[in-house]
């Protein structure tokens, strides 16, 4: 069997710059990875990372790295409303306030209705994000296929319709107490 030996390449002062060479054993086996260069300095003859090499031992992203937060969906999952553009955030808050007002105000909602309105608002956010993506990139790919975003948009629209049906499309009058009626009459 061939013997593997770690060799210091010395490219960075010897710190973690090891590569492996396969030496022929007594049977006359020939090494297939005698060339040790900058491309093979951190891998063995089979392409695996050499033990002790920092590139093979550490994860790609360290704690606190924000490289994975580039696209909007992952950023929205991690940071919620703070990941949304300010104009979209204001528009969504206006939508939420309008739905609550249509249902008779916050004091007239049950906990279940408030939950449905919250979920309807979240689905509205996703619908707007998917629409923005389709507007910027188009419905079709370069190869002429329909983007997966379009299919997801249709699914989100179906879900939006289900939540909107649960919340209700009719307007409710806000309940007015006798004291409020007297105050209103006094202002006129």
Describe what this molecule looks like in 3D.
The protein has 188 residues and is mostly helical. It has two domains: 1-58, no CATH class; 67-171. Helices cover 46% and strands 6% of the residues. It has a two-stranded antiparallel sheet. The longest helix is centred in the middle third of the chain and has 27 residues, at 111-137. It is elongated, with a radius of gyration of 31 Å. The model is unreliable at 9-14, 16-26 and 28-38 (pLDDT under 50).
What structural class do helix, strand and pairing data support?
mainly alpha
**Largest sheet data:** 2 strands, antiparallel
Q: How confident is the prediction overall: mean pLDDT?
A: 75
Whole-number tally of structural domains:
2
What is the H/E order?
EEHHHHHH
Low-confidence stretches: 9-14, 16-26, 28-38
Radius of gyration: 31 Å
The strand count comes to 2
